[in-house]
Give the backbone structure.
Amino acid sequence: MAEDAPRWLEVDAADAVPAGGHAVYEVDGRYVAVYNVGGELYAIEDRCSHDDNPLADGPVEGLEVICPRHGARFCLRTGAALSPPAYEPVATFPVRRRDGRLWIAAP
């Protein structure tokens, strides 16, 4: 395996995250929220960069998750902070379905 190749971790069944839904997994000591938007999976760190509270319980609009505490918005695709009070991005992770399982690349 190449030194810069991701280390994939199996976290659940491939269909565990329903369309329009999300699930949270602990991956190497970090909580990662996986969202299913239109059949595409997006994985971001489940932590608002403004105050470290979880993002996963916030509403999703298109490809944006809204922090339930202060309303900061984050891009599910890139992790970019899109509105105050957050200014720093959150981490994103490669995610895939393979052999009937859901896999996330370790941070």
The chain has one domain: 8-105.
